[in-house]
Amino acid sequence: MNKVVAGPAEAVQDISDGATILLGGFGLCGIPENCIASLVKKGVKNLTCVSNNAGVDDFGIGLLLQQKQVKKMISSYVGENAEFERQLLSGELQVELIPQGTLATRCLAAGYGMPAIFTPAGVGTEVAAGKEVRTFNGKDYLLEYAFDADFAIVKAWKGDTMGNLIFHATARNFNPLMAMAGKITIAEVEELVPAGELDPDAIHTPGIYVQRIFQGTNYEKRIEQRTVTRR
Amino acid sequence: MSLTKEQIAQRIARELRHGYYVNLGIGIPTLVANYIPTGMDVVLQSENGLLGMGPFPFEGEEDPDLINAGKQTITTVKGSVFFDSAVSFGMIRAGKVDLTVLGAMEVSDQGDIANWKIPGKMVKGMGGAMDLVASARNIIVAMMHTNPKGESKLLRACTLPLTGVRCVKKIVTDLAVLEVTPTGFLLLERAPGVSVEEIQSKTAGRLTIQGEVPEIVF
Asked: What is the pTM of this model?
């Protein structure tokens, strides 16, 4: 059971125009930098990207937006990206903004084999437009469907050759959820170890959810808001 | 004198109780962390996946993998725990978070809140705000009483796209502390030196005044 591929180019080679991709990360924290760079290089177009944020102008998903490779973004917060806002207001880019917890739970549902969930988030707002509402114990909930995505691309701290993953700190965020939700899941990791070296009790994502894994290189890990305490 | 942003945060900190799990939004709400009374056990939740958020790191000790929901570098405190975004919003949805403090562009006298979108102008998104306001047991809004044009942000009904309906319990502005009741806003306290008349003139929603309204004392 060896899922190791040579690198990001091989990992994304069958992602073609029009694909739907789940991309892990929160802001620029825990994003799959190597695979994004390979998608930019490959020039694949008309992508539907599901990701909590859309990167910044010159990093993360912002790089795909710059090259006009994205047809549609499904995100919860996109406030840090001027090019994104320009493409949205000019109508070049389709955008579906959804609550962050809804985004997370629609991934979870896909990974759990459940077609839909009920959530109170967005009841009474424009997010609820056209959606089924059910009342449980006197409170209204929206029906939201599990994501149906061709690929998930995630970034982990450590992984093994069987695809088991461990995340670090708040770089975990959406990564384990998206890993569970993709039909084909690609994991790039900072450190790839032989199977058997990770503590089974410490693994966050079981390797059964991961189809391809490789050790990434040259992680920039850019910080969006560097805030410090004076000594 | 109207309250500074720090004073708004300081006043909201008085709503904290021992043992509370608290989610603080971006902006003024973040400042509340600076005024947690010494000795009070309060655990801060950051919805990107952390319970036990600590202060900003010392220079040189920033970890790009350790940020808060505002994407700022942070630290953890004793007893902290990391989790994924589904667990994070699971604990929010399940009502485990005792208090949510967030900013707003508008609040209605029914407790509706708008804070995520200005049609045709600002497209940022709701982030976790819709999940938080739909489920939190206690929601306090921290905001300025009026917008930069001087118009009231406390309205009979919100004009901007809603984030949530009938959810806000209390509002602390630069001029006053107000509670949302079935009959509209109830004026609880006023900023030092700010008159009831000024608050009335800057509140567009229904406002009830009961007896003598005390000044906030710092």
From this structure: 0.96
